[in-house]
Amino acid sequence: MSAADLLLVVMRWAHGLATIVWLGGGAYSTLIQGRQLRQLEDQATAAEIGRATGREFGRWVNAAMIVFIVSGVILTVDRLSSRGATVQYGIVLALKVGLALWMFGIAQGLARRRRARPATGRLAEVRRALGSPRTLLWLGAIVVLLAAILKTLYENALKMP
Questions:
Q1: Whole-model pTM?
Q2: FRET pair for 124, CA 20 to 30 Å: which of 15, 43, 74, 86?
Q3: Total domain count, the chain
Q4: What single-letter DSSP state applies at residue 76?
């Protein structure tokens, strides 16, 4: 195994771990912890726990974003520089990157939203829905699906004569 191959293995591993941290942590926080905190009688304590764990998880998400960007750039350059990079591959990759950027925006917005007074009105409602933790989870699931599609497109293109 060459040094370049080893670098790609490490980048794929790091990209996968960042995905696990982001989606796994987000799923736990949104689907389990949030529900349990809302059921507590002492809502002041629940709010403090939510803020404290949100701050800590936010640090992990920020680290994961750095890993995503560094590993994603390296992996993208590797894939796009090979014969397996078809037009279809490029379109799906662009969609995946676009959704990932939306996810990064949501993550940053959630951190700001925790500190700000909630906006009111119909537009604020739509913005909250499009930038909600649940939307973030759905987008993450779609990005993982797109990664599987990219792998299949790439491998199929390599099989072509």
A1: 0.83
A2: 43
A3: 1
A4: H
